[in-house]
Design goal:
Elements lengths: L4 E6 L6 E6 L7 E4 H5 L7 H23 L6 E11 L2 E12 L5 H14 L1 H5 L3 E8 L1
Parallel strand pairs: 5-6
Antiparallel strand pairs: 1-2, 2-3, 4-5
Helix pairs in contact: 2-3
Length: about 140
């Protein structure tokens, strides 16, 4: 399977702007710029897209893990905070709120750790990854 996205940039790094599109068209010429990356401008940025990808991938991997041990999650809400400092992604911190009826804390912690280490986006990121969670 191959998935693709396209970025188009026009102009200089600081004054220029660009847009990104995905194969699925969920993102279709979505704006990004210096201001949306380094200030509070309108549009997306690469770090935000990585955060979305990591949150989504982790949630899906954890769901597969839990289902594999016969615990269907009611809800897994994952927020990913990407730290971008001095031109480097230095950290990806996942905050999980989970509703998984009947599972023990020990069973859940084991599945969370596996998802943290083995979701495909975790494997591709060359950064410090951490997870904090609440289980209801």
């Amino acid at each position: 399977m191959i998935r693709k996205a396209t970025a188009v940039w026009n102009g200089s790094g600081k004054e220029g702007s660009g847009h990104v599109s995905t194969q699925s068209t969920v993102l279709d010429k979505t704006q990004y710029s210096f201001k949306s990356r380094f200030e509070d401008g309108v549009g997306t940025n690469p770090e935000e897209l990585i955060a979305a990808a990591h949150a989504g991938c982790f949630a899906m991997k954890l769901s597969f893990n839990l289902s594999g041990i016969d615990f269907a999650p009611e809800e897994l809400e994952v927020t990913c905070n990407i730290t971008f400092e001095e031109g480097v992604l230095s950290k990806s911190h996942l905050v999980l709120k989970a509703k998984v009826p009947g599972i023990s804390e020990e069973q859940f912690a084991e599945q969370v750790k596996d998802a943290e280490e083995n979701c495909p986006i975790s494997k591709v990121l060359n950064t410090n990854i951490s997870v904090e969670y609440t289980l209801n």
